[in-house]
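Continued from yesterday's entry.
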Amino acid sequence: MYVFTFVVQIILLAAFLWACSTIFVGMITQKRVPAPATEEGNFAVVICAHNEERVLDKLLKSLMDQTYPREHYHVFLFADHCTDGTVAIGRNYPKVTVFEREEGPRTGKGAVLAWGIEKIRQKYRGAFTHIIVFDADNVADRDFLHWMNVSFCGGARLVMGNRLPLNPCDNIISEWYSMYWLSVDTLFSQPRYNVNMPAIISGTGFGFDFSLLDPEGWRTITVTEDMEFSMQMNFRGVFSEYQEKARFYDEQPVNASTLINQFRRWFTGNFQIARAYWRPWLDHFRKNPDGRLIDNFVPVLMCTIFGFYFICNVFWLFYNAVTGLPLFAAKDIIWWIFLYLLSLGVGYASISRSGYSTGRFLPGILTGGFFCIFISLIAVYSIFRPSKKWVPIAHIHTEGPET
């Protein structure tokens, strides 16, 4: 077990150095400034919703209030087995088309996207150049579509917007979530954009070239359709691009049960992707070696490895206690102190670089290391108890983002 934990330390250190090197180079590289848009694309803005009457209205209002020319985008609401007022809210907007899905069982978001996008392809063939995907609990900044169009005009075919927390400081859990997404965007995606490295497609607030669906349409099979779609595009030589100014707001969960259910589903989906695509990925990498391909697997593998590493350390401490050996070696103490200080640094940097007050996030920053351990243990648990069912998230925020 000692050898195993040492090997894991080396793997974690290597992953840390890889991430730091790309981020550091991106931070010291001159910031990329996209060229102004030369034309307006035609966007199909799609929203997947199941009983979202509490939050849907604020998203639709934000989409109706875009600075982007109204004749160049149309909103489609995919109402999946809704039994509340979701459909009625959508139909209150004359420029929103509602597709009601009632046949068959209620499934995950990937199946809903496949169903709804196919309807658009059949009824509006050739009418749209790009698709934008939102969740019902989002709020789009007024310039969101404008800046997405800037990226598309610059040659990007898969674009991730800047995900900001709608309710960053409701409680410790919303703070953890907020730091998680802010670190993904501010500390990971933005610096890497400066050196032409891909962003992480995170399920909502992203867009892509409609032609990428040719010939079969949307075809994902896992419960994390966003990352799976991103990997499918990587096989076609298409990598995601981050657009910092395409800002949108996303409601963050506030209870532990939602956190556990959501991360279980995310990790389950990542494991499904690894099992389904590792051979195609390996074949593609052999033919087209590209460092950007490695980024697909690094985040989930590192979180799982860290979880196993933590469990091994707990067993190691128990073994030492039973056999009378010293509980801690000096190097182990130094290593754990380093990891905790690293969590403090990441938390502080993600908040401050995003323009938020670090004082408001102090509880989340100080406990960020425990959040990392928590989700790493969820990753390990998800290997043995996968979550293949979409669990609805209760939404409580009917207003816009905090100021």
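--- second protein ---
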Amino acid sequence: MAFESLADKLQNTFKKLTDKGLLTEADVKSAMREVKLALLEADVNYKVVKDFVKRVEERAVGSEVMNSLTPGQQVIKIVNEELIASMGSEPTDIRLQPRNEITVFLMAGLQGSGKTTSSAKLAAQLRKKKDRNPLLVACDIYRPAAIDQLKRNGEKLNVPVFSPGTDFTVPDIARMAMKEAEEKHYNLVILDTAGRLHIDDSMMEELEDLKAAVPVTQTILVVDAMTGQDAVNVASSFNDRIGIDGVILTKLDGDARGGAALSVRSVTGKPIFYAGMGEKLEDLEVFSPVRMANRILGMGDVLSLIEKAQNADLDEEASLAAYRKLKKNEFDLEDFLTQMRQMNKMGGIGEILKMLPGVGGKLKGAQLPDDKSMKHVEAMILSMTPEERRRPDRITPPRKRRIAKGSGTTIQDVNRLLKQFEQSRQMMKQMSGNMGKGKKGRLPFKLPF
């Protein structure tokens, strides 16, 4: 889970502050020492940490905080604002040429950073959200596997890939791709370049030649968030040598620390355009400093949740029916199965819950269904009688044995399902209450609960 380790430490630190009534300067300084240690353990750049802590302390020991009725909350507010500022305050839009001109993105990065996948994700997103007609260009002439991967991703997304082979130089391939784009009216060209295991002169020279050969609109560096401080060092090196316009951070969903996300902007002065939040080709989010800061401090990320719901192919009527049954305390195992199927389209109930303010932290220890267990869940529910699905509290031990036998599972699996059902019902009821209702009793957006 993104930022999980850092988020836990910061939230524990701030709980100590909010549990107190009045705060002293010593309380604030003690808390900031813990914050500093948490950030350093998260692999945030030392200078970034030092400047961050200094800014927060200067604001937090002022009379505005000390004399406040809720000083602990005021400190958290300051930390939140400074976290946002360190990541760039507002999302930075990737720059596109007018639709009647060709936008050219040069995708750079080390081998294994996720550059090829990110190129395809970016093409699909800009086609959908910015109405662009993309052409992916295979410029990695050293690894046939990279070309094959780009072609496979292009096929999955129905995005054309230009690949004349490995017998041409990279600048020549780029020039040929531009001619192809002009002739076939593509207005977005994404150059997927070769990477190396480490930064070397030959790679940099090739990128310099490529930028000289075609009119590159923006140079986008793809870095692996899970490499922490190394990702920041890579970004600095590329920026110094070829100049970059922004960054795509990949594997941010697996980065429990968060060092790269919190350091890149401050160290390089370049914005993070997008964050890769999963393995699926659609898992590319516009990087929002506000949303990231909110996630780190346990404030939820409702806007991302709304976007997930809008992008998923959900059955709105089924969602509304389940919502009404939750309100009447009539939610049963058939509804549970339907909603689990819907939630899986959005990444699973755990992914949804952790985006809600005040709910994500309650997930620890909760046994919630995941993709692997969904087949067993479905088999067990389908092995029940209609009465058992409507009234799970009436499922006795003999019935559990029959359900387990009929679904190829164990009694322990059935007990686990019933526990999951009750936990999920309570959490979804809380989620529905948090979200409230829109006008005329309808939900304000599609959600599977």
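The domain at 103-299 is CATH 3.40.50.300 (Rossmann fold). Residues 435-449 have pLDDT under 50 and may be disordered. Will compare against the first tomorrow.
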